[in-house]
Amino acid sequence: MMAFMVLLIGLMGWQAAWGQTFSRTEMAKRVGEQLRQVLQENHPSLAAGSVFVRHTLNLPDGSVNLVLDATEVDDRPGRQNIPVTVVLNGSPYAVVDATVMFRKKLLVATLNRSVKKGEMISGTDLSWQEKQVTRGGYDFVRDFRQVVGKAAQRPLRANIPLRAQWFNDPLAIERGERVRVIVKSGGLTIRTIGVAVKDGRVGDAITIRNPESHRRYLATVIAPGQVKVEGL
Q1: The dihedral formed by the CA atoms of 91, 96, 99 and 102, expressed in degrees to the nearest 10
Q2: How far apart are the C-alpha atoms of 4 and 119, rounded to whole Å?
């Protein structure tokens, strides 16, 4: 009988201690509402997408509020974990993590037309568009000079945010091409013809083959169809 009474008192105490349930769905909703205000005041280029809180909280009876620290929000797109303080009856009670997917408005370069792999990009091919991006770490093109005069490394569609790594300098020499070879040795300069063994861009060191002796040597690409050798 005594054991039963102790158990009953324990259950009554538990019910008194945990008088309300704060569901993770409700917490996520209220975090989202607070985030909109925080972003409007501190990060106007950011927008909060999905908000996820992992656990439901069992709380004592009382007034519950959430406090979100604006300094914990980074000005970048992508997933961020934001600590949120649960305040019960005016006092901090617990801290929970809210996982938020942020979108960010960026002014990025886009193509006015689709291009094929290897096509050269000119200034008239480009325009600025404001886009919302959901992932950080991308090297988006923020200056036309990053891509004008360069070649697309892959087929690209119009109106998508461009990334700098999708472009490189155009080929100055293609494999199998006959090229002009400038040989400098001391004060002597010799000009001859060679065959490129591989593709090359200006500044690349590529292998050249002598079409008569078939001897191979390294040369530096200095211009389209032209290489230089120091002291052959």
Answers
A1: 20
A2: 84
The answer to whether residues 126 and 111 touch, using CB atoms and an 8 Å cutoff, is yes
pLDDT digits (tens, 9 = 90+) for 184-223: 887 889 899 999 999 999 899 999 999 999 999 999 999 9
pLDDT digits (tens, 9 = 90+) for 102-144: 988 888 899 999 999 989 999 999 999 998 888 765 678 989 9
Cα distance between the two ends of the chain: 105
Could you tell me the pLDDT band of residue 69, with boundaries at 50, 70 and 90? Answer: confident
Query: At 122, which amino acid appears?
Result: S
Classify each residue of 118-154 as buried b or exposed e, where b means 16 or more C-beta atoms within 10 Å of its C-beta: ebebeeebbeeeebebeeeebeebeebebbbebbbee
Instruction: Enter the pTM of the model.
Output: 0.56
Which residue type, as a one-letter code, is found at position 75?
D
Length of the chain: 232
Which residue pairs, CB below 8 angstroms and at least 24 apart, start in 114-120?
Answer: 114/155, 114/156, 114/157, 114/158, 115/152, 115/155, 115/156, 116/152, 116/155, 117/152, 117/153, 117/154, 117/155, 118/151, 118/152, 118/170, 118/171, 119/151, 119/152, 120/149, 120/150, 120/151, 120/170
Number of H helices, E strands in the chain: 2, 14
